[in-house]
Design brief:
Blueprint: E1 2-5, H1 31-38, H2 70-90, H3 96-105, H4 108-123, H5 127-148, H6 153-162, H7 164-169, H8 175-190, H9 197-227, E2 230-232, H10 242-254, E3 263-265, H11 269-278, H12 282-292, H13 304-321, H14 327-332, H15 340-372, H16 382-397, H17 401-404, H18 410-425, E4 428-431, E5 443-450, E6 458-469, E7 479-484, E8 502-509, H19 520-537, H20 553-556, H21 558-564, H22 570-576, H23 588-597, H24 602-619, H25 631-642, H26 658-661, H27 672-690, H28 696-707, H29 715-723, H30 730-735
Parallel strand pairs: 1-7, 6-8
Antiparallel strand pairs: 2-3, 4-5, 5-6, 7-8
Length: 739
């Protein structure tokens, strides 16, 4: 996942689906927010508004920041941002740099303050921070709308858009400048600048209400995850591996349980999924599963289904204002897919194959139960699937995930991903223990590489923050975000360090009392987020607006999913998968069994995901939401209609489907992971075809076309530049075992 970059309202917003919306409005009264913050914020000496030049690499002064600093800092930054944009609108010069160059530079203070704010509400969203977030959500949304509706500004943007081809033909503009003119113009149009004044007001009001609702939706999930727990004993954890028992014990300690035999299963995926996989207690599996799949509706006070329904109605009206019948039409218009039909064609093709694979997997589990003479009341239920899939995996493939985990400590997998990064792109990670971040568990690194002209010397490429552990007040899931985005278009006199990106990767691994051991899936997640990290660190664009991950949504997961492939490579595992106690290298026999078992349960995983993508597109393709519309009933009827296999539920049910309802970024867009899988499997095949997954020439082409170009070139053209042709789905289907 990718979170909002730089918080710059003049940029193309990319709010992370697992983060509350970062955009909202000034139309509501600010009195309550003013009163809340005045008692804690000191305008003079606010660290968010002071120079950070004394900080290493101009990092934020984390140790000085408290929640009360954010509102006054954001208000000052918004005021400066509007002044920047008004100066462009009134500028008498009509050249590229005076309009689009200045537009790209506008709001530097807002981006600086907002970069910290956006990361805090995801990674350190304490109760005080949540108060600030709730107060600021509508204010920020209104600011965003105002930025697009400053008198004369769109006319300036249009003047640049209208001459782009002429200037390119004359050789006066680069291709990147043409692309900037096109993307900025498109953003303005999609924000409703061509609407009449009455419609603009309604559109802005919709954005305000959406931001408020989306913020509440995410906070409700966070509250459910923070408060629900299942307190059990070591005996209750029968069947669970030692590292899971240790993690549950650590979770109990972290939550203040003092009993020597108290263990806690939380709703964090890194605890609940392993428990569902290994626990022999069917009753406890059901209890954990029911709570896990009911996040967002565990309390009558936190009714996310009602919130989601309001969001759907508002989005439908938003789409209508923009000339579309449904939100899915509006949302896919500016994507590689271009329309809902193309999305559905891909997803339904995969769906049919995935159902067949899942049915075969269930048949194998039923056969396993029959051979053992066991009977399950009601057959295999959703809280049973992971458990019996693991039993079959062990019986049929002689592979036990817990046998592999000691070789996949967090340290080992981190070293592996850094080494792969170095071999492919020449990046070196230098840990800086002397630099303190916003939490003691966050590691800070300098990222360096050899200079092109003087390879004996190296240069700073990025600053990297690695935040790996689950904890209270941190959003669930995994994501990449940025405090600062790569750019060459700096304000005159700015320190060049301001163009060096500050990239953050967040995971939610269960922290053990000793070494933290990862499942293979956890390791894949770490590699995935580093792929996003590469997209930010390797960015080489002139304009921040086009830099880093600011690409079309169905391209943004290509760099991340591509990186996952290297963890599956034996050459990587043999070098880095070392037993955390003995240092022994992972045995060849274990790797062979891992590979043999790798496709088992792929049907389940693909059904779990694709059902979400299909329902997302279906619910956003409705042209009406009647007064009696019931989202829960829609879910049941739609899954029945498409033939959801028995024993599987959606990976994200509507009440906690943050991708859809905690922001609009992935709404009608959850399909993007599958779309990108077609691309990433094809790209990795190019490495395989050379006979060397670290082939230098292919890696350089990949860096240039996939990781460094940002949105300077249309994504379909970037893919063609790398592969020399259109994408081929056969690699994806083969690697899924569904060819």
């Amino acid at each position: 996942l990718v979170t909002t970059r730089a918080f710059h309202t003049t940029k193309a917003f990319r709010p992370r689906a697992l983060s509350p919306a970062l955009t909202t409005a000034l139309s509501v009264s600010t009195t309550a927010a003013d009163n809340m913050c005045k008692t804690t914020a000191i305008s003079e000496g606010n660290p968010l508004l002071q120079s950070w030049a004394a900080q290493p690499f101009h990092l934020p002064p984390f140790e000085e920041i408290n929640p009360g600093h954010f509102q006054p800092a954001l208000e000052a930054a918004m005021e400066a941002h509007i002044a920047d944009l008004e100066a462009i609108a009134s500028c008498t010069d009509n050249d590229f740099d005076s309009i689009l160059g200045a537009y790209d530079r506008a709001g530097s203070l807002y981006g600086k303050v907002g970069g910290v704010y956006g990361n805090y509400i995801s990674s350190l969203n304490t109760p005080d921070m949540q108060e600030v977030q709730s107060a600021m959500a509508p204010i920020l949304s209104r600011h965003r709308s105002k930025c697009y509706n400053i008198p004369g500004l769109f006319e300036k943007v249009t003047s640049m858009y209208d001459i782009r081809e002429e200037m390119a033909n004359k050789g006066e503009w680069t291709a990147e400048q043409v692309r900037l003119a096109e993307r900025v113009y498109t953003a303005f149009v999609r924000m409703g600048v061509k609407l009449n004044e009455e419609e603009k007001k309604e559109y802005g009001d919709i954005q305000v209400e959406l931001a408020t609702l989306q913020t509440k939706f995410m906070q409700n999930i966070l509250k459910d995850e923070e408060t629900w727990e299942m307190v059990i004993t070591a005996e209750d954890m029968a069947g669970c591996p030692e590292d899971l028992v240790a993690a549950a014990r650590q979770a109990a300690v972290d939550r203040g349980h003092e009993g020597a035999d108290e263990h806690v299963i939380t709703l964090g995926r890194s605890l609940v999924e392993p428990f569902l996989t290994y626990s022999t207690r069917r009753d406890l599996r059901k209890k954990a599963f029911d709570a896990w799949t009911s996040r967002g509706e565990l309390s009558e006070e936190r009714d996310n289904l009602a919130i989601a329904t309001k969001i759907l109605r508002l989005r439908k009206r938003q789409a209508n204002l923009m000339g579309h019948t449904t939100f899915s039409e509006y949302q896919t218009e500016d994507t590689m897919a271009q329309n809902p039909e193309n999305v559905m064609n891909l997803c339904m093709d995969v769906w049919k194959r995935a159902k067949e694979a899942a049915d075969k997997e269930r048949a194998m589990m039923e056969s396993f139960l029959s051979e053992k003479g066991d009977e399950l009341e009601g057959g295999i239920q959703p809280w049973d699937w992971r458990f019996y899939a693991e039993q079959v995996r062990q019986a049929n493939f002689n592979f036990d995930e817990s046998e592999l985990k000691p070789y996949l400590s967090l340290d080992a997998v981190t070293n592996a991903v850094f080494d792969v990064s170095n071999k492919l792109y020449g990046l070196k990670y230098v840990k800086r223990d002397d630099i303190k971040a916003y939490h003691k568990d966050v590691n800070v690194y300098e990222v360096r590489r050899a200079k092109k002209d003087t390879p004996d010397e190296d240069e700073l490429v990025a600053i990297f923050l690695h935040d790996n552990f689950s904890r209270a007040h941190k959003s669930s899931g995994a994501w990449m975000s940025e405090y600062r985005t790569q750019t060459k278009n700096l304000i005159e006199g700015a320190d060049p360090i301001e163009g060096v990106p500050i990239v953050s990767n967040n995971n939610n691994f269960a922290k053990g009392s000793g070494a933290t051991l990862l499942s293979f899936d956890d390791g894949t997640t770490l590699f995935h987020e580093m792929g996003h990290g590469h997209h930010g660190m390797l960015s080489d664009c002139t304009y921040e607006y086009l830099a880093s991950t600011s690409v079309l949504k169905d391209f943004v997961e290509l760099p991340s999913q591509l990186m996952e492939h290297w963890l599956e490579e034996p050459v990587v595992l043999k070098e880095h998968a070392k037993h955390y106690k003995t240092g022994e290298t992972v045995p060849d026999d274990l790797l062979a069994r891992l590979k043999a078992a790798s496709l088992f349960n792929e049907g389940f995983a693909t059904v779990e995901y694709t059902a979400c993508a299909l329902l997302d597109m279906a619910v956003h393709s409705l042209s009406e939401y009647d007064d009696d519309f019931d989202l829960s009933e829609f879910e049941k009827k739609y899954l029945l209609e498409i033939g959801m296999p028995q024993g599987i539920v959606m990976r994200h049910r509507p009440a906690h489907f943050a991708h859809l309802f905690a922001s609009s970024s992935y709404a009608s867009g959850y399909y993007v992971y599958q779309w990108a899988q077609v691309l990433d499997n094809d790209v990795f095949a190019a490495f395989q075809e050379t006979g060397d997954v670290f082939d230098a020439e292919t890696a350089e082409r990949c860096r240039r076309c996939i990781y460094s170009a940002g949105n300077t070139v249309a994504p379909q053209d970037l893919f063609k530049a790398f592969r020399g042709r259109e994408p081929d789905t056969s690699f994806f289907l083969k690697n899924k075992g569904m060819a």
